[in-house]
């Protein structure tokens, strides 16, 4: 498949696309404003993947290499189309009301992703890059043209807010009583 | 410590759940990628699409001519059968064998094989030959990891006979006949089961669902000379074993035809009815999310999206607590500031019935009358400038509408002469009440036929317009885009200079009071935008045309202005 992609073979490209596009669209969706934007990012990212395929050196997982390109494409898109610095503002965390009645629920990946997407753009981006994509704060700062300390503070706020939201949505339990998660099929 | 444990789990949770999340992109994405990577291969698909469209149109045209069809079928009854299907987990490919009795049989059978290619079998004049094999995109989201695959099946049976209402029966697998009979119109039958191999078998008149969860429905419409039957089946096919699947289907129309489809590509047939069978893949879920869930994993595999009460409450809560900071219209809206320097051309016209007898042979238009005003006036283009701003709103990805306000200064020159002494001249005007022309006398030192020194007169207007229009994106990428658009511009003329040609075309009279206050312009433009740092630069040619005369209708000469310029703009998003 890789050899075919390097020869610009359409069938190989399509096979690779179908193999990785669902997961990569999930990545884009976490960064994007809506599905349409996510698909635009995916399209742009895969064009880069295919045009830069010769740079892949078989040193790591192909998915990881593709994912990195997709993430950078998402970030470039955000920086290009948004007032990105404005999005790094402080959100009013207390606007999320926490219901004290904790009922265990089955956690779905989609719920978690949607909760992440509820975060303000700046928070969401930093959280995506740090907690999910695994970029260090220093690299995030470089990618987003912000200070490293800003990245850290944004992540801290983002995480706190996301915890609030997940608790509010009864996806996780409040940590003060029992420090564990209510994961899929978990008990209350 | 406890908190740390929680935090670690929290981040792990996020990563795991995010990695689990998958979405399936729409086909548009791959098509765009493909076209970008293989630009030279766009044409075949376009050509094939055109051929298909033309073929469909022709088919529709001929099928609508019921009289001709009836006549044709009366003398030559045909059988047409085509099967297309979704690959069902390495199932064998049934192909067609046709058997029957009659004349002039035509049979086409198609079915997807396991490798997602279409085998087409066509038989005409008692012969079946393998015609072609085409490749289509696999419906990967249908069968992936799930033994059950939804298939939508449709069958159309058309049988005709001349001048009589022919009883018609549909048999499937020699089961008791499903009868389409009598002289009723819009008869309906429900029949068919699906055997273990996913082929459509049938029984009539009761619809049945076999152990594999197959349901089929057939509707029949009988008209005096033409009978049409359509079967529709939503089939959930079981995962097939590796055994050779010998799918067989028999459709018969008593007294007319028997069609048998078996695993052979070559056969003979003498059938005399027209039968069309299609099994098409269910693509209704293309482009939807496909996150595995407990309910889906135990379901029939049809990824039906349902919203439970809990989900609905969650979504509503989400919407309430997370109102977008940016309104949707803000994302679609942009300001545009622009300046359009250009050349202004004036064109005059007049009704010939108001021409005067010629006093000077040099300016006649034949027949001894004063000629066309446009020919009599020696014009030269002038400088015009336009500036303004507009608000652009994207209605769709490639279509935006705009509205704004702009100022225009128009000016064109007239080569004339200045005389040392004023002369008496006349303008021909029309009485708005009676509609009759009359002469309005004036003194003028500006001559059209000679004087002491040449002079250039400038006819000018100062306008304020409210352009309303649209622009269509012809092409674009991240940085560059090419648009074309048009505007209509209600215009208020604040003032100007007007040098009007006299009735005898010999002199000019300055009379700005005849300039029309309200006018209407239209503009067409094509421009390129270049994005940088949140702004876009815009540049391109523009043509602006004045739709009404510069002067009131009472002046017998009409003047319409045209501007050709280069529009330079700066676009800023909200």
Features of the shown structure:
heterodimer; A: 188 residues; 61% helix; B: 574 residues; 27 strands; elongated
Structure commentary:
The complex is a heterodimer of chains A (188) and B (574). Chain A is an all-alpha fold. Helices cover 61% and strands 0% of the residues of chain A. Mean pLDDT of chain A is 77; it is low at 89-106 and 177-188. Chain A starts with a helix and ends in a 20-residue tail after the last helix. In chain A, α2 (10-31) packs across α4. Chain A is built from 8 helices and no strands. The radius of gyration of chain A is 19 Å and the shape is globular. Chain B has 574 residues and is an alpha+beta fold. Chain B contains 9 helices and 27 strands. In chain B, the strands form 6 sheets. In chain B, strands 15, 16, 17, 18, 19, 20, 21, 22, 23, 24, 25, 26 and 27 form a 13-stranded antiparallel β-sheet that branches. Chain B has a 5-stranded antiparallel β-sheet with strand order 7-10-11-4-14. Chain B has a 3-stranded antiparallel β-sheet with strand order 1-2-3, with no helix packed on it. The longest helix of chain B has 23 residues, at 42-64. The radius of gyration of chain B is 38 Å and the shape is elongated. Chains A and B meet through α2, α3, α5, α6 and α8 of A and α1, α2 and α7 of B.
Oligomer state of the chains in this structure: heterodimer
Strand content of chain A: under 5%
> What's the number of helices of chain A?
8
SSE series of chain A: HHHHHHHH
The chain-level structural class of chain A is mainly alpha
| Broad structural category of chain B | alpha+beta
How confident is the prediction overall: mean pLDDT of chain B?
63
Molecular shape of chain B: elongated
Q: Mind describing the biggest β-sheet of chain B? A: 13 strands, antiparallel
Q: How far apart, in Å, are the first and last alpha carbons of chain A? A: 46 Å
Alpha-carbon Rg of chain B, integer? 38 Å
> Using DSSP, what is the number of strands of chain A?
0
Which residues of chain A form runs of ≥5 with pLDDT under 50?
Answer: 89-106, 177-188
């Amino acid at each position: 498949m890789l050899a075919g992609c390097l020869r610009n073979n359409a069938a190989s490209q399509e096979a690779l696309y179908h193999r990785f596009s669902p997961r990569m669209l999930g990545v884009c969706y976490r960064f994007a404003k809506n599905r349409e934007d996510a698909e635009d990012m995916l399209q742009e990212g895969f064009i880069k993947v295919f045009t830069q395929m010769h740079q892949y050196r078989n040193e790591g997982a192909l998915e990881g290499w593709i994912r990195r390109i997709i993430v950078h494409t998402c970030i470039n898109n955000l920086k290009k189309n948004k007032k990105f610095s404005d999005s790094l503002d402080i959100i009013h965390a207390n606007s999320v009301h926490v219901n004290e009645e904790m009922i265990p629920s089955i956690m779905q990946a989609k719920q978690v992703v949607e909760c992440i997407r509820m975060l303000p753009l700046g928070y969401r981006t930093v959280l995506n890059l740090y907690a999910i994509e695994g970029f260090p704060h220093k690299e995030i700062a470089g990618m987003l043209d912000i200070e490293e300390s800003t990245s850290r503070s944004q992540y801290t706020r983002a995480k706190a807010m996301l915890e609030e939201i997940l608790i509010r949505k009864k996806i996780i339990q409040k940590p003060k009583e029992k420090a564990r998660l209510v994961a899929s099929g978990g008990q209350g | 410590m406890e908190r740390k444990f929680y935090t670690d789990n929290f981040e792990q949770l996020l990563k795991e759940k995010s990695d689990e999340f998958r979405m399936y992109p729409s086909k548009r994405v791959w098509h765009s990628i493909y076209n970008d990577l293989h630009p030279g291969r766009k044409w075949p698909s376009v050509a094939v699409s055109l051929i298909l469209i033309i073929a469909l149109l022709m088919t529709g045209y001929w099928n609508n001519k019921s009289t001709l069809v009836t006549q044709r079928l009366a003398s030559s009854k045909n059988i047409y059968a085509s099967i297309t299907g979704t690959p069902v987990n390495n199932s064998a490919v049934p192909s067609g064998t046709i058997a029957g009795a009659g004349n002039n049989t035509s049979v086409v059978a198609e079915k997807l094989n396991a490798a997602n290619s279409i085998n087409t079998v066509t038989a005409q004049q008692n012969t079946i030959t393998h015609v072609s094999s085409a490749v289509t995109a696999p419906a990967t989201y249908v069968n992936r990891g799930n033994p059950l695959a939804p298939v939508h099946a449709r069958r159309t049976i058309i049988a005709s006979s001349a001048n009589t209402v022919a009883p018609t029966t549909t048999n499937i697998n020699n089961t008791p006949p499903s009868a389409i009979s009598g002289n009723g119109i819009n008869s309906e039958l429900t029949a068919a089961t699906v055997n273990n191999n996913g082929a459509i078998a049938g029984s009539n008149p009761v619809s049945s669902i076999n152990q594999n969860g197959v349901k089929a429905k057939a509707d029949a419409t009988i008209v005096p000379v033409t009978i049409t039957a359509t079967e529709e089946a939503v089939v959930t096919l079981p995962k097939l074993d590796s055994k050779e699947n010998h799918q067989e289907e028999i459709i018969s129309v008593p007294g007319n035809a028997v069609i048998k489809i078996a695993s052979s590509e070559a056969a003979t047939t003498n059938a005399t009815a027209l039968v069309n069978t299609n099994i098409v893949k269910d693509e209704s879920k293309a482009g939807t999310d496909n996150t595995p869930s407990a309910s889906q994993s135990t379901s029939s595999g049809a990824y039906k999206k349902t919203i439970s009460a809990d989900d609905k409450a969650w979504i509503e809560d989400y919407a309430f607590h997370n109102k977008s900071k940016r309104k949707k219209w803000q994302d679609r809206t942009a300001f545009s500031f622009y300046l359009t320097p250009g050349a202004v051309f004036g064109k005059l016209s007049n009704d010939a019935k108001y021409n005067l007898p010629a006093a000077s042979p040099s300016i006649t238009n034949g027949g001894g009358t004063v000629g066309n005003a446009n020919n009599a006036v020696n014009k030269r283009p002038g400088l015009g400038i336009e500036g303004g701003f507009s608000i652009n709103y994207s209605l769709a990805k490639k279509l935006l509408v705009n509205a704004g306000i702009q100022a225009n200064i128009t000016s064109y020159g007239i080569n004339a002469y200045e005389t040392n002494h004023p002369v008496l001249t006349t303008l021909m005007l029309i009485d708005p009440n009676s509609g009759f022309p009359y002469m309005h006398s004036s003194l003028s030192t500006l001559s059209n036929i000679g004087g002491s020194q040449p002079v250039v007169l400038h006819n000018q207007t100062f306008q304020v317009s409210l352009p309303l229009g649209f622009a269509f994106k012809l092409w674009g990428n991240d940085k560059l885009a090419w648009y074309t658009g048009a505007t209509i511009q209600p215009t208020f003329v604040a003032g100007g200079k007007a040098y009007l040609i006299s009735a005898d075309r010999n002199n000019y009279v300055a009379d700005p009071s005849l300039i029309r206050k309200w006018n209407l312009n239209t503009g067409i433009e094509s421009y390129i935008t270049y994005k940088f740092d949140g702004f876009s630069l815009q540049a391109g040619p523009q043509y602006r045309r004045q739709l009404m005369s510069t002067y009131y209708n009472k002046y017998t000469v009409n003047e319409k202005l045209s501007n050709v310029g280069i529009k330079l703009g700066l676009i800023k998003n909200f």
